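Researcher: Structure for this, please.
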Amino acid sequence: AFMPSPVLPAGRPARRAMPISRLSMAATAAPKPGTGNNRMTDTGFTVPLVERVELPGTTQGFEYRVRSDVNLVEKKFNAQEKLKVEKAGLSALDELKMLAEEAKAKGGAQHCDDMPSVNTRLKWLGLFHRDKHMPGGFMWRMRCPNGSYSLDQWKEILKVMEHPDYQNYKGKDMGEKDMWKQGACLTITTRQNIQLYGIRLENVPEHWEALRGAGIFSLQAGMDNVRNLVGNPIAGIDPEELVDTRPFCDEFTAKLTNNGNGNPEFANLPRKFNVCYIGSKEMYEHPDINDIAYLPSKGPNGEMGWHIEVGGLLTSTLCEFAVPLNAWVPQDKHWELGAAILTTFRDYGYRYNPRTKCRLMYLINDMGIEGFRAEVAKRYKDQTGSDLPTADGITKLVPETWKRRELLGAHEQVDGKNWLGLHVPAGRFYADELKELVEICESYGAGEMRMTVESNLILPHIPADKLDAVRAAVKAKLPRISEAPATIAKGSVSCTGTQFCGQSKINTKGNTVKFAEILDSKFDFPEGHDVRLHWTGCPNTCAQVQIGDIGLLGTTVKDSTGAVVEGVDIYTGGGIGQTGAIGTIYKKGVAIEESLEEELSKLLVEKFGAVPKVGAVSKGEVEKKGGFRAMIGGLLGK
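Model: Predicted structure, token format:
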């Protein structure tokens, strides 16, 4: 991880989609001439919505604040924007110790006086109060550019999770790791970083100092900021590598956050913002759904650089893949272009309700892609003194067709050593499991452990003569974690769910594991037939249901008795990489307990070649016998 130290060009097919209620696919991206209509002010796109305000005596020094003289016409500022005007998000840097002391004195952060800061502004520090599900407990989101921490950094995270206050996950009352009740745990996210759950604000200043000393930080990890920088999970060891994405993710993160100390230039965006660098032929990094995607290419003279796609998003109001910006920059100008895009979004991006309509693509749809590019190009030239090159005459390096390689299991690296990809069920693991992982990595002299956007782990740099011992150790010491999971378990991705998230309608983590066990016990699949099953708890679609082979979007429904129960809307047809596509509704309002197994079984047989196993059992039989693992144990006489 980082240590402080006018015609759209032809390219990969990009697909546009309609609002979530009527999603559809189109074969190619339509031109974006723009409406020319600024939905907030009659000044069009000539006067920024924000201005720089000096803040003497504060750590941040200044902020970008919504202008007081803006003449609002069609839309009004949303509640979060009003809160930011009252006090900047980064003000939490100066208040952290005070809030922690107050939480300690009053028995928890839920009793603090300044709840807007506790529940909202602390998100600028990566701290999310789980006030609805775990009052006084926080989710703490770390930055981890390109998804890699050194082993020493993992040890510091382990020290945090081994704090005496965070051991309740072991007790029977806390569900014994069953993902249904609240307890301390860790989760790998779909942005290649780590989130810690059950953290107490009272302890954060101590944790903060220790983690910063190890080069780990969480500044600007939540709310209206750029999310974790995503890159190739096997960067530097990939035999088919196009570009080593690690130094670019590191540099972008360093400049974005002022080396992890906070950077007010980029700390008041209209909404969250996603960035990735593509270094793999498979596009493991999902460029289609990022606000900025840097794709490797060679310029007209053969020099290495990036061509740019912008605006990708999956939201409750619009799902649309990123579109070409008709821009190419040399590798060493990646940050200057990124800063030009970010400040354009900061200055002109929308800040009204609903906040889902404050994402970058909404601005592009009104400015038009050419108008947006012109503003970005002006800002790029202000930084570099050079015009922003077009994408004319470039050679794109990502192949148009490519058989996707497997990340899980053992694979030879470019240097002859090996990596071992490990499936982590629902991306969830615990302090005792992290301790075992660290010890296994130490046994062969590893210097790092990595994460993927599928919420899995990669153990790199394993010498050939130690590979069998490492695999055996994982199997013996980590029974939940596997290098060769069954088909449904392997392809399952999920968001946080109701276990910790107040917006979710369903428990995604628990159901992810439960239904993977049920369906993998019922079906065999043809060799090479993967099924990506994405669970997300609400229309914010953090688990990206629209790009799953099957997507399950949480909702509430009435079952056959008329009772209101957890349910899902089912999507099909999504895709990633060279076969990227946005899925469409297959069936709405399916009750999870009553009908989902039947619906998924039908889909798997009809569309994915699933073959029922001899003697396969239903969900009801599994539950009657205490769950899949208990049932198997009984059959084996254990």
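Researcher: Any notable elements?
Model: The CA atoms of residues 248 and 374 lie 25 Å apart. Confidence is low (pLDDT under 50) at residues 1-29, 628-638.
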